[in-house]
Design goal:
The chain has 133 residues and is mostly helical. 44% of the residues lie in helices and 6% in strands. The protein contains five helices and two strands, in the order αααββαα.
Amino acid sequence: MSKIISISEAASIAIHSMVLIAGADSSLNVTAISERTGSSKHHVAKILQRLVKEGYLSSNRGPSGGFSLHIKPEDLTLLQIYEAIEGKLLDTKCPLDHPVCPFDKCLMGNIVSKMTREFKEHMSNHTLADFLR
């Protein structure tokens, strides 16, 4: 089945993991996060390490170790998390990234550009704090 919009598994794991970590009373380990997200422990670990490198998480090793937020939930947008995994979200005019369209106007009616702007706006207007109980 075809999808108009698709978010990578890595970006989805990152966002969901960050909400879980933000809402936890103590640090969460990879096993707990992978069980809650239904994802591979190895994939979760790789993604969380990237978020540590970005400065969004702290990690502690050992039996009582795990991940905790290094930044306040209200100061971290979903867009920041998404871009930490996927790279900077660019507003492109052409879905095929062609510099010049062979037609007088875009056959897609610039819907790709519009959807990208709306996605970016939504993600930048929501912080982790918005999803905490």
